[in-house]
Design brief:
By secondary structure, the chain is α/β, with parallel strands linked by helices. It contains eleven helices and 14 strands. It has an eight-stranded parallel sheet. The protein has a four-stranded antiparallel sheet with strand order 2-3-1-4. Strand 9, helix 5 and strand 10 form a beta-alpha-beta unit. Helix 3 runs parallel beside helix 4 and helix 10 packs parallel to helix 11. The radius of gyration is 21 Å and the shape is elongated. The N and C termini lie far apart (43 Å). It binds phosphoenolpyruvate and manganese (II) ion (MN). Phosphoenolpyruvate binds next to loops.
């Protein structure tokens, strides 16, 4: 259910509608918009009587939300949501390039990566501290030591940082050091983890599971918003298909469809989406062309010796090439992107 307030509804009226919703045993989510405030109602198992809500002062209408996800839906919030990550805005007119190595490996490696990323035009640094690897014998990440290095790299370059969390322990550690928590593809439907990450109130980068439908992705995001954390950036990172030429199939079709159905920003990850270095730039540019709000790209100072995902990591020079090409394509689709050192 969505309660639409009148344009001139007062703060007192809004608070009193929220209190009424809560007194009925439901949760209320105030969603301020450009012209009016809407209040999302969740926690109900069946339909709620519209008449009760429509009789409250300041309410113009109560509408039933037809989709299984509600707070992420455009029905509830027509305007695009812009998420702020350490001062960088994702989902606004400017495209956002997130770049860095798959894993943090050493101080030298992450510092070099951060310097390259910044110089190329990236606005946010990525780096894995806790790695969900297919093989239990593969490099699992440096854990808290990596988080400390990320914080140091932020200090050095001014770039906010994003890193993946896997469980409650990594959430508790990561929240102290990073600006944005990443929920990886393998955990998209780990609802306990989603709720726990949401409660940190940090922005969340939610990656689509390799076999998740659009509806499952939006419902996963809904778990986070339902906790009262509205800062979610969706990420298409490739799905399982029958491709015998790429690690995954980057499902670019989902980008314009998400834009229709949801107000949340969506970026793509052509690194995991293709699994091949030579495919990353073409698919990154295609992502910009279909309306993605940004990109997350794996880049390594020495990809041939990377501890993880080296074969899909760009050489630093390639990141600069990508950024310059993004700068060309962005205005064609009404977006901005400027290659200039941040800050
Ligand atoms: C990653 O970002 O390094 C990663 C493991 O991504 P995904 O969860 O999309 O596989
Ligand atoms: Mn990786």
């Amino acid at each position: 259910m969505l309660v639409i307030m009148k344009r001139d509804a007062t703060d007192e009226q809004i608070s009193s509608v929220i209190a009424s919703i809560e007194s009925l045993g439901y949760q209320a989510h105030s969603i301020p918009g450009a012209t009016r405030t809407a209040i999302g109602v969740t926690g109900n198992n069946g339909p709620i009587g519209r008449e009760v809500l429509e009789s409250l002062p300041g309410v113009i209408q109560a509408i039933r939300v037809t989709r299984p996800y509600k707070l992420v839906s455009r029905e509830v919030k027509p305007e695009d949501t812009v998420i702020e990550v350490g001062g960088v805005r994702i989902g606004g007119p400017e495209l956002v390039l997130i770049a860095g190595p798959c894993s943090v490996e050493s101080r030298a490696q992450i510092m070099q990566s951060a310097a390259f990323a910044r110089a190329a035009g990236a606005r946010i640094l990525r780096g894995g501290a806790f790695k969900p690897r297919t093989s239990p014998y593969a490099f699992q990440g440096l854990g808290e030591a990596a988080l400390k290095l990320l914080a140091e790299a932020r200090q050095e370059t001014g770039l906010p940082v994003v890193s993946e969390v896997l469980d409650s322990e990594s959430i508790e550690l990561a929240r102290k050091y990073v600006d944005m928590l990443q929920i990886g593809a393998r955990n998209m439907q780990n609802y306990v983890l989603l709720k726990q990450a949401a409660r940190t109130m940090k922005p969340i980068l939610l990656k689509r599971g390799p076999a998740a439908t659009l509806e499952e992705l939006l419902n996963a995001a809904e778990y986070i918003l339902a906790e009262g954390n509205y800062q979610v950036v969706l990420c298409e990172r490739g799905i399982r298909g029958f491709s015998d030429f790429a690690r995954n199939t980057l499902d670019l079709t989902i980008v314009p469809v998400v834009k229709e159905l949801s107000h949340l920003p969506i970026i793509t990850d052509p690194s995991h989406g293709t699994g091949k270095r030579n495919l990353v730039i073409p698919l990154a540019l295609a992502s910009v062309a279909v309306g993605a709000d940004g990109l997350i790209i794996e880049m390594h100072p020495d990809p041939d010796h990377a501890f993880s995902d080296g074969y899909q990591s760009l050489y630093p020079q390639q990141l600069s090439t990508l950024a310059r090409e993004m700068e060309q394509i962005a205005p064609v689709v009404g977006r901005g992107f400027a290659v200039r050192p941040a800050g």
